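Sanity check. The docking grid for magnesium ion depends on where the pocket ends up, so I'm generating a full predicted complex first rather than guessing from homology. Inputs follow.
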Amino acid sequence: MITCKNLKKSYLIGGENLEILKGIDLTISQGEFVAIMGPSGSGKSTLMNILGLLDVPTSGEFHINSVTPGSLTDDNMAKIRSRTVGFVFQQFNLLARTSAFDNVQLPSLYTGTRRHSIHRAKDLLTAVGLGDRMDHPPSQLSGGQQQRVAIARSMMNDPEMILADEPTGNLDGKSQTEIMALFSGLNATGKTVILITHEADVAAYARRIITIRDGLIVSDVPNIPP
Amino acid sequence: MITCKNLKKSYLIGGENLEILKGIDLTISQGEFVAIMGPSGSGKSTLMNILGLLDVPTSGEFHINSVTPGSLTDDNMAKIRSRTVGFVFQQFNLLARTSAFDNVQLPSLYTGTRRHSIHRAKDLLTAVGLGDRMDHPPSQLSGGQQQRVAIARSMMNDPEMILADEPTGNLDGKSQTEIMALFSGLNATGKTVILITHEADVAAYARRIITIRDGLIVSDVPNIPP
Ligand SMILES: Nc1ncnc2c1ncn2[C@@H]1O[C@H](COP(=O)(O)OP(=O)(O)OP(=O)(O)O)[C@@H](O)[C@H]1O
Ligand SMILES: Nc1ncnc2c1ncn2[C@@H]1O[C@H](COP(=O)(O)OP(=O)(O)OP(=O)(O)O)[C@@H](O)[C@H]1O
Ligand SMILES: [Mg+2]
Ligand SMILES: [Mg+2]
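Predicted complex below; grid placement will be based on this.
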């Protein structure tokens, strides 16, 4: 369960205060499937980085499962993050000289759940269509293949919540359908899925569509997937 | 004018020969507007890197403006590339600790055409909607903003040909329309535009749509833009 009240984020740049998030009020319950849309530069990734405990708000209230991340030490924040959140970054953020298989397995090294990790990493890579590319590092993978490695990695620790930032930006229609089926399947088991997208046919899979414009939520409506 | 005959590209990986392009026959004339589509991992970026003189084929014929790039020294290939081709990379490839403005201006440093470069870089950044983000480095730009810096940079040297690899993957509808208007405008002045996309509404702007599947062209059809 995530709650935000009057959440703000700003940067001090060149001596000026640049306000990115201007007061976000938001509640997302466990098990929801939410799509976040909005213009380029409107603050979607900034918000998702805060929800994923990768960044802190400048002001406002933010609670995740009745814990206030702002009051935690960096270590405790990292611990909660690695167990609770699976993150798919907009730019993938894979380790460069590391195979697809080792990239996917990485999250299990942080939480110490090594026992089934080899099987699980292989199953996840096969589920995203990369069974024959496991030993390729990012430089030997296409853009969409790297994106799918990042998606598999986000699911490694079986987190309660998956945050995916533009997860289908580099995928053709068929790969996109396979990935959205994966997210829908996860959500059907009770996981919370929050994804940022600019593609309406991706947002259509969600049961709730939030639109952000210029750092504020301008609409928040239920959606019935086709 | 680009001509390819039985163009192949393969990699030796783990002792095995992995064939990516399996015999591409293709002619693209000056001034065409071409979209290349196809599944993730089918070889689109690999082909575009060869057409953009950033990589060499393993075998087959390849000519650009009656020059055979394979017979050139690296230096001469770089010279022709910097004057002839504007490239928008799938992962943007911006310089990290460098402002948007300096990133856009960079190509003019290679060709020595500095005189108008300051004005031109500013005009291009304004044309892609980033007039108020010129001094931000990539880490202070959103994904779609970085993509638009890469698009502006590709146009800096006013090249004869623009190769754009998934140029709208991180853009919302309005930004996408603005960028496609920019490409269409360039093409109307006689520049060749070749773009890779998986979005049908982006490919619709082109007058020719080529589909690649598993390293081969499976269809090559004219298209009438709406
Ligand atoms: N350096 C390399 N060594 C080995 N294989 C490679 C290398 N670079 C790319 N590949 C493989 O070549 C194939 C084609 O890659 P390419 O990047 O051209 O695909 P693409 O059509 O652009 O895909 P996408 O739509 O996902 O960007 C992929 O299966 C990839 O794994
Ligand atoms: N470190 C930073 N310092 C200053 N400004 C920043 C920083 N990071 C992001 N910004 C600015 O914050 C705004 C929002 O960025 P954000 O990445 O959240 O946008 P977005 O909605 O995800 O856009 P996109 O759809 O293009 O990915 C942008 O205008 C960007 O320039
Ligand atoms: Mg973003
Ligand atoms: Mg590609």
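Relevant for the grid: Chain A touches chain B at residues 11, 13-14, 37-41, 44-45, 90-91, 133, 135-136, 140, 142-145, 148, 165-166, 169-176, 198-199 (CB under 8 Å).
Also worth noting: The helical segments of chain A are 44-51, 74-84, 100-111, 117-127, 143-154, 173-188, 200-203.
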